[in-house]
Design goal:
The chain is α/β, with parallel strands linked by helices. The chain is built from 14 helices and 16 strands. It folds into three domains: 13-118, CBS-domain; 124-254, CBS-domain, CATH 3.10.580; 259-377, Double Stranded RNA Binding Domain (2-Layer Sandwich), CATH 3.30.160.100. The chain is globular and about 55 Å long.
Length: 379
């Protein structure tokens, strides 16, 4: 399947000189999944809600300062390759070209709607993120924003004093809150108002009750629930309790579309643009060298994610790297930080290998990857 009939020529477009305040208002009014930025009529970049929340810039900042690059996708590209490019680019919208001409856009939502009937072979437990960042209901909004920025995530489960799920706060909640308050307060010096907003408890902003999923559910049912409730992810809890087990998002589902049946390990890199002194091939070779030491553990998929912090040392940014392997014995991960992506990657790789060694009862498992891969292979 390709994206010829999935890509759309209808999209929200702004000039690179558009002010950030106007763009925030567009997100509030039209609720797009992303905005395409053009300069002199040519494609320049995209802006999503993540960029708005992570930006500390004033409302008169130009769009060109906030936008980020997104992969250029051919209108006839394979749907699975398109999903990979969106995930690796850390974007939910990307420009689609027909030859040299900008045809329109492709979104993660459009892909998921096109393939949803093929997702009944996957269980939530196969793709959920287990290392969940949470926030207490008495924490301040400013702390929640810092958590979202620090971990490059879009949602935070809110827990009560006993650790049970009490609510959720997302980047969309924060953008909507700031824009609504801006409209009410009007123009002028709003620094005092902003401080007041950041000091509010998360409890005042969170959404409750929370729409949840269980590990045993199939992904098609969960994605359908996301669309019905206009959300991009669900908190995963035990079927008989409110204990947080993980989070499953539309991005996790898009990532699952990239799983392959090839003999070589499938490796995916998010924020691949942060690779500086080494290449994608070296990343794959390094992970393969660790995996090959433990041949009794079958690895289906590896996901490497880089995140850049503001801190720098002699001009080199502090990078966080997380490596997660999906194996025949469950998920195993390793994370670390370092100055430059190569340093961060090797710290994370060392932690990954130690975590693999700690896994108990690793036995040979030659089972075929089963219904999951066969079903996705039909796309």
């Amino acid at each position: 399947m390709d994206i010829t009939d999935i890509a759309t020529p209808d999209f929200v477009e702004v000039d690179a000189g558009k002010r950030l305040g106007k763009i925030r208002a567009i997100f509030e009014r039209e609720k797009p999944r992303g905005i395409v930025v053009t300069e002199d009529g040519d494609y320049a970049g995209v802006i999503g809600e993540k960029q708005l929340v992570r930006s500390r810039m004033e409302d008169d900042t130009k769009a060109s300062v906030v936008m980020k690059s997104a992969p250029h996708i051919d209108r006839h590209e394979d749907v699975r390759e398109t999903a990979r490019m969106l995930v690796e680019g850390d974007v939910n919208i990307a420009p689609v070209f027909e030859g040299e001409k900008l045809y329109g856009v492709i979104t993660g939502d459009a892909i998921l709607k096109a393939v949803i009937d093929s997702l009944d072979a996957i269980a939530v437990a196969d793709i959920l993120t287990e290392d969940v960042v949470t926030v207490g209901e008495k924490s301040r909004v400013g702390q929640a924003i810092n958590q979202l920025r620090e971990h490059s995530i879009s949602r935070l489960p809110v827990v009560d004093e006993s650790g049970d799920l009490a609510g959720i706060v997302t980047t969309h909640d924060l953008v909507e809150f700031v824009v609504r308050d801006d409209t009410r307060q009007g123009r002028g010096d709003r620094r005092g108002d902003l401080d007041r907003m950041l000091d509010l408890p998360v409890y005042d902003l969170m959404s409750a009750p929370v729409i949840t999923a269980t590990p045993e559910e199939t992904v098609d049912a969960v994605v359908e629930r996301m669309f019905e409730n206009d959300v991009s992810g669900l908190v995963v809890t035990d079927s008989d309790s409110e204990t947080v087990q993980g989070v499953v998002t539309k991005t996790d589902v898009l990532r699952a579309l990239t799983f392959t049946e090839e003999e070589r390990m499938d490796v995916q890199i998010t924020n691949v643009s942060l690779l500086d002194t080494f290449s994608r091939e070296e990343v794959v070779e390094s992970i393969t060298s660790v995996v090959d030491k433990y041949q009794q553990m079958q690895v289906f998929h590896a996901h490497v994610r880089f995140h850049e912090h503001k801190e720098k040392l002699r001009g080199t940014p502090l990078i966080q790297c997380q490596i997660r392997l999906r194996t025949s014995h469950g998920q195993v991960a390793g994370s670390g930080e370092g100055y430059g992506s190569e340093h961060a990657f090797h710290v994370a790789l060392d932690k990954l290998e130690r975590n693999v060694l700690e896994m108990k009862g690793i036995n040979a498992d030659e089972r075929y990857r089963g219904q999951l891969i066969r079903k996705l292979g039909e796309l």
